[in-house]
Amino acid sequence: MRSLMLASLEGDGAAYRALLSDLGRHLRPYFARRLSAAHASHAEDLVQETLLAVHSRRMTYDRTRPFTAWLHAIAHHKFVDHVRRHAIRPTVQLDDDAPVFASDDSAHAADRRDVEAVLGTVPDRTADLIRQTRIEGASIAEAAARHGMTETAAKVSIHRGLKSLMARFAGGEK
Predict the structure, then answer these.
(1) What DSSP designation does 102 have?
(2) What are the residue ranges spanned by the domains of the chain?
(3) Rounded CA separation 144/133 (Å)
(4) Dihedral (C-alpha) 88, 94, 100, 102: value to the nearest 10 degrees?
(5) Span 133-153, mean pLDDT?
(6) pLDDT for 128 beyond 90
(7) Which CATH architecture has domain 117-169?
(8) Are 1 and 22 a contacting pair, CB within 8 Å?
(9) Are 155 and 140 contacting, i.e. CB atoms less than 8 angstroms apart?
(10) pLDDT tens across 1-34, in order?
């Protein structure tokens, strides 16, 4: 394969086609041995990714070094990337364990009091719009409908309220 690589680097198109064909035959069993049965179908994807990497990085090949070492380094990195992308990350639904764990809201109580104190410095409707959209996750359309106002008016109210709060807590009273 090294001689084909050297010839392809000199511009020999037939050698390059032969090299890619040989690489495909070499890489398929290489990846098949490393993949679990569940991911065996990914071998061809890895072969294609490796061939693309060889193609795009072929000018970095040091002609004085063994070709297979260079190829295997690329293939190894493609395999590691694949494993990272498809790593099994077990998850446990914590909702199922909720009765086991006690809920400690004491730390959040102080945060809620601080937020309410800050929102108390802006008009009630503005504070409620900010609370609904920025804390509770409601859309501007939903919050505007609850207050019987247009979305544009709600956006302006939220913007002015947040601007006022930022100015107040950045050191300048507005």
Answers:
(1) P
(2) 2-85, 117-169
(3) 10
(4) 130
(5) 91
(6) yes
(7) Orthogonal Bundle (1.10)
(8) yes
(9) yes
(10) 888 888 888 888 898 899 888 988 888 888 888 8
Determine the average pLDDT of the residues in 137-149: 91
Mean pLDDT of the region 78-82: 87
| 8 Å CB contact between 130 and 119 | yes
What does the pLDDT read at residue 100?
56
SS3 content of the chain, % helix, strand, coil (to 5): 75, 0, 25
DSSP code of residue 122: S
Q: How far is CA 96 from the centre of its chain?
A: 27
- Which two three-digit tokens encode residue 171? 């050191």
Instruction: Give me 60's structure tokens.
Output: 């970095």
pLDDT at 126 over 90: yes
The DSSP code for 137 is: -
**Topology of 2-85 in CATH?**
Rna Polymerase Sigma Factor; Chain: A (1.10.1740)
> How far is C-alpha 106 from the chain's CA centre?
33
Q: Which two tokens stand for residue 52?
A: 């693309």
- Eight-state DSSP code of residue 103: P
